[in-house]
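dumping this here before i forget
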Amino acid sequence: MENELIRNFCIIAHIDHGKSTLADRMLQLTNTISDRDMKEQILDSMDLEREKGVTIKASAVRMNYQANDKKVYQLNLIDTPGHVDFNYEVSRALLACEGALLVVDASQGIEAQTLANLYLALESDLTIIPVVNKIDLPSARPEEVVKEISNLLGIDPNGVLQISAKSGINVDAVLESVVKNVPPPTGDADAQMRALIFDSHYDSYKGVVAYIRIMEGKMTHTDVIRIMSNGLDLRPVEIGVFAPDMRTIPQLSEGEVGYIATGLKTVSECRVGDTITLAKNPATTPLPGYRHPKPMVFAGIYPVDGEDYPDLRDSIEKLQLNDAALEFVPETSQALNFGFRCGFLGLFHMEIIQERLEREYDLDIVVTAPSVEYQLITKDGQKIYIDSPAMLPDEGEFSEILEPWMNLQVITPTEYYGTVMEMVRKRRGIYKDQDYPASNRVQLSFEIPLSELIINFFDDLKSRTRGYASMDYSFAEYRTENLVKLEVLVGGEPVDALAAIVHKENAYHKGQALVSKLKELIPRQMFDVAIQASASGRIISRANVKALRKDVLAKCYGGDITRKKKLLEKQKRGKRRMKMVGNVEIPQDAFMAVLRLEGD
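structure:
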């Protein structure tokens, strides 16, 4: 098809603003999917995506649309992930487009994630088509939201489309606007072929399927292709387009969006953001912006039953086939035995992996409290990265410790201004500046340590602002901080899975809170169990779990006191001997106690 009739666009929106529903209506209006095959959120193939109302994997679909000018246009819709953790994937998907539909909920207004993705789209020089969705809701306030958007983009309020994706109101106007306003792809069809990989998934028959946008040149299904980052040459199993199921075609040319079934066995060989070219006439330079997505949050995943360890390893390996950002290495813990140390893009990514392991692979797992990657400067000036508190050496062995800090944006109604400020200050956040995108909403900018952000911050923010606030964050830098290792000893033995790296000022009250929590959670044994918290080489808090005692005096009714003393002394000796050989079973709840500390 000639370039003039191709339109590549994506939809950017905050979680649950109706992005997937709008995509459904477009597929119906263009007769891409018959009414018989239609189901809600058709591009969200995972159950988790449907339940959480958020797109986790990008997807693409080709639609043929006859516009009012009677020409048939090829519309390529790229559905981007809708969460801050998948920011890099969103940025690659935006590069594959010329335009973006900015969807905003008529009852919620502009949210932090909407702004973050909008700025990404503007950086990629995309044409923005603003759309206000859910105008038929009783709580909708479309006029106010239209005003917010027109102020933000500096456009005429009449240029903002008002629709209801669920009931189909005005969706045809969105398609017309895409045809009219989104520019056709520009590029040389006769140049050396370069294609951008904006997503991929693993197929057990076809290997890794790369989702691509041809930027220049063209390719056929018989061409040998080269992946530019690793120089790997291969002949594709097949090439094709999504309509929305995979449909093979003999050729893809400049401006088109489709897929290449590579036959590769791991996604890591064919990463998001990489460039594909032809082996016989390769391009000299790859497309800009490619990088490895770096895990920011780390946690240990262990099987509840030690016998499930091989199953857990197989399950994580299968998940990694579809998710190159997931990293894992085997690790052992004194308390939890064998498991894996996993790296995630963020807390939401971690939650998704945890739920998929439990649901899709039917595993009972324990996930330790998440931690971040710290940078140590040794005495001889070397840099070491550690992602587990248990790996932190004694204070005398390193000269300084640096932790990752993030830029944080919070958008909230103005009435919760003080609440948000106090909450961020308690978590060592630093206020930067503020902006008012609308008369009753404020955007606050902070700098905050990632370690404070990953533990309950989002839940806390939502509960304190009755669900109205939204947030977005991005990595800023590593900063030197006064940090110490907080260790927990149960019965005199350190439990590595309960260790944490905390700020020295907070060590005392965090240690005290953790010990109090563990005292409630650890069941009573036949002997006294001491729970202690230690930091900087000294014990800072202690609690005892009292022993369960049999009433040995029950059979002594009256009689000499020495008889009773003798029985009690015998019991005491037995308890002491039991304590020497007994070990304490720590319940799963205790490992998540770090997350639920009051006063954080």
